[in-house]
Amino acid sequence: VWLAGAGPGDPGLLTLDALAGLAQADVVVHDALVDKRVLALARREARREFADKRGGRPSAVQADISKRLVELARQGNRVLRLKGGDPCVFGRGAEEAMALAQAGVPFRFIPGVTAALGALASADIPATQRGVNRAIILASGHGAEGGADDLDWAALARTGQPIVVYMAMHTLTRIATELANGGLSPQTPVAVVSSATTAQQRILETTLAHVVADVDAQGIETPALVVIGEIVAFRRRVLAAATAERRTTP
Ligand code: SAH
Q: Which residues pair with 227 in a beta bridge?
């Protein structure tokens, strides 16, 4: 079983290893977030299975997916388990790998371009920039309703390093409030990138103070990432530089 990342959407962001998996797999077990253009690259004889995690019992259903992978492998299939982005960045790749290992099924991780890196590139935002940041935080907004296992957002804010939040759309109000409580300036630049690297991609530029209202007003939909920090300002500056260059070129 290959536990592979499909990248954020654009097939150009697939690795050659993932492409080889698509060319060789007997069965492709994929998530909802895997782009149709990527699935279209599977060999014609390959069976495609949709690993659906709906139903509000994610852990129980996750166990079913792992069981299915073991079953398919034991039937002698070469299985490509294809996940959006990278399999191990908020992708539950570890759980499936453990289930396969426990069942004695050989597996291999194939990394993918995680949504954060795809979205940053599409929005002309550098993940790190000399003199601006020396770390970047990838955080999950899932569970940010203030439960016991929630992240300490105020502590993340105090690092002064940019934060990219996955699965943030339902908890954005609380995240923004907590980050402000942690001392993050209301003027901190924020970009929200939805459906990054697909034809539906949208990029919203705003600030910490206005992100919640702007996301609402513009009807930004999932999947989306929220990028918070000074790295976002690069987008403006590079655009301004390019425009100025065009003005001065005869
Ligand atoms: N394993 C995936 C993340 C899965 S969690 C990865 O490495 O990218 C699902 C979340 O990822 C979504 O809620 C959204 O926040 C983000 N996401 C995935 N694809 C995206 C895309 N094309 N554009 C913007 N965000 C995306």
A: 164, 191
Cβ < 6 A, ligand 1 pocket: 8-9, 33, 83-86, 89-91, 114-115, 119, 166-167, 193-198, 222-225
- Tokens describing residue 240: 């301004």
Please tell me whether the overall predicted TM-score, pTM, comes out greater than 0.85 for this model: yes
Q: Is 214 a catalytic residue?
A: no
Nearest atom of ligand 1 to the alpha carbon of 198:
22
31 labelled catalytic:
yes
**Catalytic annotation, pick one of 10, 31, 35, 86:** 31
In sequence order, what E strands does the chain have?
A: 2-5, 27-30, 47-50, 79-83, 108-110, 137-140, 163-166, 189-194, 202-207, 224-228
Tens-digit pLDDT string for the chain (250 aa): 999 999 999 999 999 999 999 999 999 999 988 999 999 999 999 999 998 755 455 555 888 999 999 999 999 999 999 999 999 999 999 999 999 999 999 999 999 999 999 999 999 999 999 999 999 999 999 877 777 678 999 999 999 999 999 999 999 999 999 999 999 999 999 999 999 999 999 999 999 999 999 999 999 999 999 999 999 999 999 999 999 888 877 6
